[in-house]
Automatic annotation (TrEMBL), chain A:
The chain crosses the membrane at residues 88-109. Signal peptide: none annotated. The keyword Methyltransferase does not apply. Residues 109-144 form a coiled coil. Pfam families: HEAT_2. This is HEAT repeat domain-containing protein. InterPro entries: ARM-like, ARM-type_fold. It comes from the Bacteria. Keywords: Coiled coil, Membrane, Transmembrane, Transmembrane helix.
Automatic annotation (TrEMBL), chain B:
One of its GO terms (biological process) is DNA-templated transcription initiation. Belongs to the sigma-70 factor family. ECF subfamily. Residues 21-87 form the RNA polymerase sigma-70 region domain. NCBIfam families: sigma70-ECF (TIGR02937). GO terms for molecular function: DNA binding; sigma factor activity. It comes from Chryseosolibacter histidini. The keyword Transcription applies. Keywords: DNA-binding, Sigma factor, Transcription, Transcription regulation. InterPro entries: RNA_pol_sigma-70-like, RNA_pol_sigma-70_dom, RNA_pol_sigma70_ECF_CS, RNA_pol_sigma70_r2, RNA_pol_sigma70_r4_t2, RNA_pol_sigma_r2, RNA_pol_sigma_r3/r4-like, WH-like_DNA-bd_sf. PANTHER family: RNA POLYMERASE ECF-TYPE SIGMA FACTO, RNA POLYMERASE SIGMA FACTOR HI_1459-RELATED. This is RNA polymerase sigma factor. PROSITE patterns: SIGMA70_ECF.
Length: 261, 179
């Protein structure tokens, strides 16, 4: 018989795990083979030694140690109980609540971001629109083929509510240089709307020295008087003293000097 | 009440119930560890460690699993953690000649005849796995099925390995007897 198989069968034989047939085979082998019998005896000795080996008794220290550790664990479990939700249902409820809260916060943050993006987009659109209007207005003021187109440009400027440097410069230029007196008047009228602006004020004062159109001159004097712009008194005197000045303008200038002094 | 029902109660927080499991298992676990370490004091410390882990990690016990398999798995982990922490394997530092002295203390009620001495010395020369298999199947008289469940392998595999371990033990035993 193969050695390995025999060894295994001998162990099972000692443990009484063999069926009748295999048992016979082993017994036959033991009768016929002295070496196998020796092996059997040796295996039986170590196996029985192990099986008979007495149970070892632990000392009382082991039990005392266990009692201490259990007490300690029970105390710490009671403490953690106050922190954690003990029944599984509460833990699940807490988890669900956290999930909902987390989802809510996430939704709120993304909503806020969307709103911010929307506001930003609206602001940019408004700015773009204003720039387009400004460009249109400038184009109308500077290149308008007819006086009415240029007046329309002036009106657009007025409708914008707030004047930036570019618009003021364009209006001042129109007021001083436009070939049509109606357009010049309209520009002056537009500038009067922004007379609180320091730059506009300065532009109007400077314009008084250059202005040659009597209609515009009169309107400008009236506006400056209304604005109580006292710095123009000297300029008004020059207009009064200038021989070339039309009488109507002189009268208006004189009247202005009286009201501003 | 079954071990499993008791452990489920412990898992739910009824820690006092762990006393019952201690009553049922502490001697077996202590014997297993004493045979593995061949050091009584160390075996007591490690046994305490096993029960500490059982209580501390009670929530990791999976309901429906056999408690005996679980506690032995914990004991095996405690044993191997101990030797890994000491960066030593049992066989690297155990002086085979001194085993009988350790065991004299260990087995105060046993007759310390020559055969017993030889047995323990031979056991100490086995690999850790072989020694463990013999402690479980012979000293603790566990069925191959139970050991297979603890070691997470097949019964056939356990049987082959146990047979090899017995043959190796016999070899060492009679080798030493001749000296």
């Amino acid at each position: 018989m193969e050695k390995q198989k025999l060894e295994s069968m001998l162990i099972d034989y000692i443990d009484n795990r063999l069926n009748t047939v295999d048992k016979r085979v082993v017994e036959q082998e033991l009768v016929n083979n002295a070496e196998s019998y020796k092996l059997y005896e040796e295996l039986k000795e170590v196996m029985h030694l192990m099986d008979r080996s007495a149970r070892i008794e632990p000392s009382a220290k082991l039990r005392a140690g266990f009692d201490d550790l259990l007490k300690e664990e029970m105390t710490s479990a009671r403490q953690t109980k106050t922190v954690f939700f003990q029944p599984a249902l509460y833990r699940v409820a807490a988890a669900v609540a956290l999930l909902i809260l987390g989802g809510g916060i996430g939704f709120w943050i993304s909503h806020q971001r969307e709103e911010r993006q929307l506001a930003e987009r609206e602001r940019l659109e408004a700015l773009e629109k204003q720039m387009q209007i400004t460009q249109q207005m400038m184009a109308m003021l500077q290149n308008g083929q007819s006086a009415s187109q240029r007046i329309q440009g002036v009106n657009v400027a007025v409708s914008m509510g707030k004047a930036d440097d570019e618009i003021v410069n364009a209006l001042v230029k129109t007021m001083n240089e436009d070939p049509n007196s109606n357009v010049r008047l309209a520009a002056l009228d537009a500038l009067s709307k922004f007379s609180d602006d320091a730059a506009v004020r300065k532009a109007l004062v400077t314009s008084l020295q250059k202005q040659k159109d009597p209609v515009v001159q009169i309107s400008l004097i009236q506006l400056l008087v209304k604005m109580k712009e006292k710095s123009v008194v000297n300029d008004l005197r020059k207009i009064v003293d200038d021989e070339k000045t039309m009488q109507a303008v002189k009268d208006e200038a004189y009247s202005g000097i009286l009201r501003l002094s | 009440m079954t071990d499993e029902l008791i452990m489920e109660a412990v898992k739910r927080g009824e820690l006092q119930q762990a006393t019952l499991l201690f009553e049922r298992y502490h001697k077996r676990i202590f014997n297993f560890l004493a045979r593995m370490t061949m050091d009584r004091a160390l075996a007591e410390d490690l046994t305490q460690n096993v029960f500490l882990r059982i209580i501390k990690y009670r929530t990791s016990y999976r309901e429906g699993n056999k408690f005996q398999s679980w506690i032995y798995q914990v004991a095996r982990n405690v044993f191997s953690d101990h030797y890994q922490a000491n960066k030593n394997k049992f066989s690297d530092f155990v002086d085979v000649e001194k085993i009988s002295d350790h065991m004299a203390d260990l087995e105060e009620h046993e007759a310390q005849d020559e055969k017993e001495k030889l047995l323990h010395q031979s056991m100490a020369r086995l690999s850790e796995e072989q020694r463990e298999l013999l402690v479980l199947t012979r000293f603790q008289q566990m069925k191959y099925e139970e050991v297979a469940a603890i070691m997470d392998t097949t019964v056939a595999n356990i049987k082959v390995k146990v047979h090899r371990a017995i043959l190796k033990l016999r070899e060492y035993y009679f080798e030493m007897e001749k000296i």
